Amino acid sequence: MKKVDEDIANTESFQELSEDFISQFASIKYFINRGVGYAIIRNGQVISAATSFSIYDEGIEIEIATNSQYRRKGLVTITAAAIILDCLENGKYPSWDGANESVQLAQKLGYMLKETYDTYFINQ
Length: 124
Known about the structure:
By secondary structure, this protein is of the alpha+beta class. It is 31% helix and 25% strand. It is globular.
């Protein structure tokens, strides 16, 4: 596992894993300067990562993803724990907004369900 740097953020495997890892930032350089992320790399490919989808003064919103070939191996738990610890060590709140199976992962990592709400997905 490595902290996401410019080299990792520029890899095709990182960008393909989730277009939302850095989509809210004006550039990769801006993400590196203001955001945070951790990635697990295997054979030069990013196979799991957690990043700050967005940032605000007191914290971040977490974005996570794992390559489908490597799911159910605990990798996303590792990257999510790393970003949570980074936030806590730096006085930031690691906000987790789960709309799918990530709710169970959040609870495993110590988050408590505050409330439920409806979500809608648009298939294009």
